[in-house]
Amino acid sequence: MKKLLAALLAALGLAGCATFVAPIAVATADTELATCARWFEQLDAAIDRAGVRDAEADRIAGFAGLRTDRLSASLRERARADRAAFEAWLARLQQLESEGREVEIANLPSDTFPIAEAADAATARSRSAQCAQAWRRPLQVDAARRAQLLDRASVPDRYATWQRAVGLYPLVRWPFFAGVEDWQRAHQAQVERWSAAAPATQRFVPAGVAPDANRVAGLWRNRPHDALGLPQFQPDEAATLLAAHAPALEIETRGDFDRFGALVWRDGALAPAVDAATPVLYQRLAATRYGGRWLVQLVYALWFPERPPRTRLDMLAGALDAVLVRITLAPDDGRVLLVDTIHGCGCYHLFLPTAEARLRADAPTGIEWAFAPITLPTPQAGQRFVVKLDSASHYVVGAALDDGRPGTAYERRSEQSLRTLALPQGGSRSVFGPDGLVAGSQRGERFLFWPMGIASAGAMRQWGHHATAFVGRRHFDDPDLIERRFVIPALE
What we know:
The chain is an alpha+beta fold. It has 14 helices and 18 strands. It has two domains: 31-152, no CATH class; 161-491, no CATH class. Residues 1-29 have low confidence and may be disordered.
């Protein structure tokens, strides 16, 4: 990696970063929708003036009041072919809009109001909800409008093609790829060293009593699915799944930079800080597709105060560092099929399959595809994994079945809480900016890696914005990510 950095620093200049927020353009003769379009224009203007636009789901051009994400975009053909599937798909788009709009309105300063006819946040939420629902009737009766929505509800990838063109990507990708391969070989050796003789670590375990294994198993019996084929869980059922699989952690701790915790806003700060007095894992549900079936994924994120510099010119160092651990479950009984991890920048994507998943033999060459340095045993009912992280870099250097030993308890919180994090003086602000990035977490590497097309490479970012390959194109939330890289015979 050092050789790669030195060579490219000499060869490359600087460039700006791209943003990826989809535009909104609403034009319709329908009176109700035209009125709602004006409302959203006024509301969005206030949101943008306040700098509180939420970037997790993408706006849809011409359809103010609906948003989409990468999973929803992948379901468009299913929705196009079946009316019940379309209704379920539209409900997803409305839910994404509702969540994003709630975040934006909650984060507006109180002196923003009134906005048009909305005197306060509660009225703005009510008006927005009414207008989001206004799309249902015209889409039910107008096939042309449905087709237009289906065509437009796409999510751009998180790579800026212009950066790759200006940065001569077809040429510089090769030294970058050589650097990636060097890092992978070094990391494989580090994993083997930890396996042979791990250093002293601090152990963390989820707070509370683990759910009963029979109760967890019962969640998969007669599991309902919506018209899109997605499994449906009630909030308490989702909470049970997340509690059952929350991993134990063993972290090499050499300084405060290795103590993870809750994200907080400090007085006057432009960037969030980590309160290590309260160890916290943030969690969410996701899904991936395999063989036409949807597999539930459980995502856990821990945040560190920084990645400290190892040398005076360490371009990878900077404030804040996050590690995401994702567990993919089988669709029939919820057994674990594989685990994969990234850092909050989308970097260092590792796959940790169990024996039930094997890498496909037809992997393309010359791009980052699937680095799998660890194979996991398949856990039995009630068993969880332990994930091991090294000091400073916070690389995942080991994982195994947990032996159940006690440790320091950590809390689990919804990752959605980071979109409306309380301010000391009252009100709230998202950890993530309108571009999906976390302010203050930028790295020096962004000046070097910009030809790879990723906005502010190395910076922490919001769900949906994790491009995970410098060479090639790959996203953490690609719905076919696992299917394209692994064979799972039990699901064939």
